[in-house]
Prior knowledge:
76% helix; globular
Amino acid sequence: MLNIIRSILRQIRKDKLLWFFGVYLLLMVVITFVGEEIDWNVSGSDFSCNVAMFLQFGLPLTVGFLTTRACGADLRDKTANYEVLFGKKRWEVYLGRFIPSLLVSLALTAVIAAVPVLFFTVKNGWGGSLPAKQALQIFGVLFTLTFRMVCFYTAFTFLCGNDVVALIAALVGAVVLLIASALMKEVGYELTWHTALTDLTRLLDFTNTTSGFFNGKDITVYKLDLPASLLGRMVCTSFGIGFAWLLGGYAVFRKRDIP
C-alpha cells in the first residue's frame, strides 16, 4: 500500500489540473481580500475571521476537487482495476487513495487557515476581535470536518467510478443542499449534523458582530454562539459519519466486479 500512497502523492504533485485549480483559488483569495482594499494593519484575530468566512465556500471546493481527482482519475483509466488484477488487495487500493487525499487536504487546510493569520499576528499582534482560545477550538474542529469531507468524497468517487462525474455531482449537490437548507430553515427545520457542509457553515458563521475598543482603536468584535457541547458534537459526528461513509464506499468497491 505504501507504493500506492507514494504513487498517488506523486500523481497529485504532477497533476496539471490540480495546479491550475490551485492557482485559480489563490487568485480568488487575492482578489477577494486585496480587491476589498485590505487593511495591512489588521490584527490576527480579525483576519482569522475573514479567512474563516472564505473557508465556508473555499474548503469544500478544494477538498472535493482534490479528493475526486486523486481517487477517481485512476478509476477512469482503469489503473486501480489493474492493481487489483495484479495482486493488490482492494483495501490497499482504496486506502492507498484515501490516505494521500486526507494528508494533502489536511495540509492545505492548515496552510490556508494558519499561514495568513500567523503573518498578521506576527506583524500586528493578535488583537481583541476574537479570543485566541476560541479561534484554536474552531480551527481544531475544522480539521475534523475536513476529515469527514474527504471520507465522503472518497466513497462517492468510488461509487461513481469516475472523478469528473463525482465532482460535478458533488458540486451540484452542494448548491442544491444550500438552497434546500435555507428553504427548510424558513419553515422551522434546520439541517445541522446531517451534512458536513451545514456543520461547516454553522462553525464558520461570523456574521454576528458588534463594535469594541482595543488598545485605543475601534475594532469589530465577533460574537460566536459555539458552546463546548456543540463543538464536541461536531467532532463526534465528523468522525462517526466520516468513518461510516468510508466503510460504505469500501463495501461497494469490494463487491464490485472488475471489468
